[in-house]
Write a structure and sequence with these properties.
By secondary structure, chain A is mainly α. Chain A has 4 helices and no strands. The N and C termini of chain A lie far apart (about 50 Å). Chain B is an all-alpha fold. Chain B has 5 helices and no strands. The chains are: A mainly alpha, B mainly alpha. The interface between A and B is large, with 47 and 45 residues.
Chain lengths: ~110, ~120
Amino acid sequence: MNKTLRWVIGLVVVIAFFVINFFVLELAFAARLINILLASALMVIFRVMFGPSAADRIVAVDIFGILIVGLLAILYIHTDASFFLDIAMAWALQSFIVSLGLAKFLEGRRLDD
Amino acid sequence: MIREVIGYILIGFGLAFDFFGALGLVRLPDVYNRLQAATKCVTFGSAGILLGVFVMKGFTAGGFKALVCMIFILLTSPVAAHAISRAAYRSGVKTADSTVIDTYGKHLKGGENIEDAKDS
């Protein structure tokens, strides 16, 4: 498959997603915003599944945690229940520690080094 | 009213950065390039969303929590990205074919291994 065809297919998929999300479906406004984050999470999960090396998968898991924090912030706006941001803070902290631990594990050092 | 408009503009900005960061994670050829796209997804994406929440809600409990969470993300995420890229280079992940310059590899090869002596 040549390069131009791939670019055109990708552009059509992205534009169709945005048009269907914002103009076709009847949803609440926060649900439209959450759909964008879910599409991003789908692309990240693609990289987790098919990443060629372990470092790709670690990067993707790190970014997945950050996307979850954004999702929780939008849920807080929609429902006006502020415990979602408590979950977001805890998730950010845990994601940071997981990234550092996996980086040390990838480098081949012991965790208490 | 004006607060809600500014907040939704910031949230839309952050969502656009999140989406294109994830797109770069799929499209770019290399671990280091992917990491560079993904870090934009943090510093403008989710931090932009949280800043929008803070602007929208003002100085309430939820607004302060959003501000604290944003500062925490902005402080910790570059550290994690740096650790991941360093570990990826040291565990022998190859750079892409179109890479022009590789200064860290030259530094690691040249002479005595300064970094290993320093941080172990």
